Amino acid sequence: MPIIEVKHLTKEYDLGTITSLKDNIRHTLAKLQGKSTWQRERFKALDDVNFSVEEGEVVGIIGHNGAGKSTLLKHLANITKPTRGEVIVRGSIAPLIEVGAGVNPELTGRENIFLNGAILGIPKKVIQSKLDEIIDFSELEQFIDTPVKRYSSGMTVKLGFSIATSMDADILIIDEVLAVGDLAFQQKCIERMEGMIKNQGKTVLIVGHNIRQLERLCSRIMLMDHGKISLDGDPREVCGVFFKEAQDRTYARHKPSEREIISQQDSGIIQINKIELLDDNKDTQTGTGLHEPLSVRITFTCNQNIDKLEVVVGFHTSDFVHVLSVSNALADIRPTIKAGVHQVVCRLNDIPLRPFSYSLRVAFLDQYRQMLWYADNIMPVSITAGKYDITRLPTIGLIDVPADWTFHEQDDKNYHENT
Amino acid sequence: MIKVFTSLYTYRELITALAWKNIVVRYKQSYLGLLLAILKPIMLMAIFTLVRSFIGIETDGTPYPILTFAALLPWIFFQESASEGVSSVTSNTALIKKIYFPREVFPITAMVTKLVELGISCLILAGLMVYYQMLPTIYALWVPLIILYTMVIALTISFFGAAINVYYRDMSQLLPVVLSLLMYASPVIYPLSLVRQKLLEEQIAGDWSNHLYTLYTLNPLAGIIDSFQRVLLKGTAPDFNALLPGFMLIAVLLPISYLFFKRAENWFADII
User: Fold this and answer.
1) Residue A56 lies in a domain
2) Structural domains of chain A, count
């Protein structure tokens, strides 16, 4: 029997402000007389959502802002009730909807541990026995008897996370938790989460925008769009679709040829006229295949002579993982450029990237590595499987390098000789 | 209704923790701390005693300061519990929107918080009793029951008021005004015995006197304050005739108020 069942869940909100008492009375009176009154415009935050979660599953929920992710979690945590449909939860829930919801700024860290424990329904005895562990995990030994109002926001979050994850519930609901704290603490949180998931076999629902983290943690991901679940299944596939959609939206927003290139840094010395992706026949392309060449041609105008110009061309994913960067400095081909219009072609001989949609970035630097011009997310570059069979590619990993494989039989004797 | 008590038991740790938080937060950065809580009854007692010296109020023998102090204890407890209870849901917006537990925990917590302040005031009352050389009798055992009853009344108002207050914040503004008026309709400044004497014995309102007295005792606080004074100061049993009308009113209103709260609860997180 699934531990969570959601059937035809629909949630509508009234748009606009709450009506005044006078209006309410007027409408009630009109209704009693059988007249129709005006209806406030309603917004469907969730629209006929159906799914079920089995025990031990780790489900990630992704989607752009306003897709209904948090509303869905609120229904699971029983914070709000559906307009239509039903939500069945068979088990206790630890709602970590925003860590530190119950943290009171006036109380000290230690007092807050007890208070939040009570709010989350953790018996006092359990908290008492786990106190050291919680304090230890939060890395706040030194500040534990200081009022939380004097904490930094990161410290507050650490405290909240430490308390919440000490709770012993069948179902864990986490909203945007992992995106806080410093990197080291995030890592620790993920480890603890994984521990809870793998060792204790807990059912977990996570909502977040850090898709890579979710992809790593979850056994299943649901993609939400406008209050509906548009995709539900294998994390990699769903995340792939999500990234692709994000990319497509960017793509649709700027028509590739006519779009204006907006720089993030511009010293005024260089203007970019045009950036194109070309194949070896000098035809404009939107990308290329794995282990195939691609040229980036940049037409630019410089206002003054530049000694030893350095140009960097790179690709990044839509969440700004810079997977590839090449520079003419490495090859030491750094011409001195006179004022005027110039063209630079960078031919990437062999693109080692997994089939996916990437974005182009370009940087111009002077001989002292001062940034003259910089922009990322300039245009999408779609890398296809090209001459390879896409089904044979490993499903994870961003980079593919040529590899030699040798297999040979080895008997026991040889094995001992070799080791 | 039984559910209230089971959830009260299930969530006892939460209620204790929240009440403790309320107290700690309120008095944390103050020097006088909990002593501030007893300032109000003592000040009011002083003022009433002063006023009485001008206008004269019959007290049938009990010293007036201690009589009015004993009236102020349940009254202030009721007044503040009800006010706190009504705003208890809206003042915990963060929790309402993030975590689920039965929402009646909030009004109940407000009562429990005030109970601590009442306890401290009771110490002062004990001091006054020592000063006036009054010994508590066996009837003092009624006190917990009277306090419990006061809490039930405050809860009746809180459930209804807190739910309304989520939709219309007017409630938390209006209630203190209404309650401060209600104080004059309760035997705080004057004893109930005076009302009884005027209406039942002297029949000052003519034929209406008996009805007026019933109307007066329909205010459950009338019976409560009187009983509190009786069992502690006079060493007699509560006057059940004075308690009955109010009790019946509450017996009708409490379930309605609670059901109203539970129905409204579903939309708290959306509206608040």
Assistant:
1) yes
2) 2
